[in-house]
Amino acid sequence: MTEADGPTRVLPNAEPAPVASRAADAREAAARRWVVEHGDILWKFALSRTRSKEAAEEIVQETVLAAMQGFGTFAGGSSERTWLLGIAANKIADHFRRVRRAKSPSSPGISPDATCGCATCRGMFTEKGMWACVARRWPDVSVSEAEKSEQAGALRACIDALPPGQSEAVWLRDILGIPASEVCKAMGLTDTNLWSRMHRARVALRSCLETKFGLRKEKGQ
Amino acid sequence: MIRFVRDVVRVLTLPCREHVVLFSRQLDAPLSRGEAFGLRLHIVYCGGCSRFRAHLSHLQTLGRTLAEQTENEPGLPADVRERLNARVARASKKN
Question: Which residue of B has its CA nearest to A22?
Answer without folding.
Answer: B92
